[in-house]
């Protein structure tokens, strides 16, 4: 399989693949890592591409449960269920260690995906049956929905605290990608990303620079920024972590 | 990766691979599906091969917990821990659905196997953390050992009942591969395997013929036989399943 990179501009991913492409993988509800939602016109154009070229779209909805500000963003899969595979996970909503996820497949792909040698019942890898059954009970009881709603409020408060602190303490730093998910992008003055990352390491903060996620084929000029996950640490450690973050920002 | 098949004779696997082979995968304590243990002289010869050719041996010890008659068969890995990877699993001792297993690796391979992109902590597949942690508590408490001992007695009684019933009701059928594990091989008169399998399906017995496991490159003449797992069904259904099995045997 040959992998090509989709173009990316100031409005996010340009999801029109080059001729000869069979499938497109993207995170339309919350681009990773920059955090924007795919523009409505681009969503439509992508589905049109799939219909015209017999293409498949893989919609990685990795943190769609956590949307704070805007109206809910519908699943791309809803635009054409026979062209879009919707991929979900409990990695953000419950725990990465659970290793539970799901795929909502077009009917034509469902049978092959469940065949003995590629599916859960066969000899290849799948999540443990105990975790699957436990999650099914959790979901059916409504407790999963209540958990997601409670966590959404909690994460929103953390996000608000992060934005307020950065705005007050580091006015030269822009905050973006915050309408959804569990991470924000802090845009830094040009050339400062490496030194901020080194200072963060001294403060024992596990931050990632945006450069780490930059593909070698990317065409936009590099932008200095931090990708800051705010789902951790635990509540008792959160205020001091936020304070340490503000100390290292320029 | 090119896969070649090891020779197989009346004494089981002949574990001497052709020139150019880098690694050998086998089930030395209980050949699957025929059920014999690898002969001591062949165990030694295989380790000698690995030392002479810088080869790696993968010892799939899939049901080594359940040995009934003979002295325990030591792990091949014990003969040369730097040449043999020992692979274990809870699929037979607890439940296939747990998807838990382990590899005892030579030191030289351990680091690479735990690297971020190939190991449990990275972005690739591993068993769920909850199951791993639960199993660790179960193991450390001694409860796993007690469970295996209790099941060994239970499976041994089932095996004895199977052998007794087949010997009494179908004297033309030979029983082999029964010193360990959770399945027996019932050797049938030549040419009868397909008809016995069809009769078993009518009796709603899920049996597998030995032919199903035969590799296209195998050199021994075909042998008609059934591979009979006796770990299922549940106790209340076991006597009638055994009775149904005896009905379909020639």
Into which percentage range does the β-strand content of chain A fall? 15-25%
- The helix count of chain A comes to 6
Structural class of chain A: alpha+beta
Helix content of chain A: 25-40%
Radius of gyration of chain A: 20 Å
Mean pLDDT of chain A: 91
Shape of chain A: globular
* Ends distance of chain A: 43 Å
Which strand order do you get reading across the main beta sheet of chain A? 3-4-5-6
Sequence stretches where pLDDT stays below 50 over 5 or more residues of chain A:
117-122
Greatest interface (CB-CB under 8 A), with counts per chain: A-B, 12 and 12 residues
Write down how many β-strands of chain A occur, each being a DSSP E stretch of 2 or more residues: 10
**Which sequence of SSEs, written as H and E, runs from N to C of chain A?**
EEEHEEEHHHEEHEEH
Give a summary of the structure in a few sentences.
The structure is a homodimer of 250-residue chains. Chain A is α+β, with helices and mostly antiparallel strands and 250 residues long.
Account of the protein in words:
By secondary structure, the first copy, chain A, is an alpha+beta fold. In chain A, 32% of the residues lie in helices and 15% in strands. Chain A is built from 6 helices and 10 strands, in the order βββαβββαααββαββα. Chain A has helices spanning 40-53, 107-113, 129-140, 143-169, 193-202, 238-248, and strands at residues 8-9, 12-13, 23-26, 56-60, 84-89, 101-104, 174-176, 183-187, 208-209, 225-229. In chain A, the strands form 3 sheets. Chain A has a 4-stranded mixed beta sheet, covered by helices on one side. A 4-stranded antiparallel beta sheet of chain A has the order 7-8-10-9, with helices on one face. Chains A and B meet through helix 3 of A and helix 3 of B.
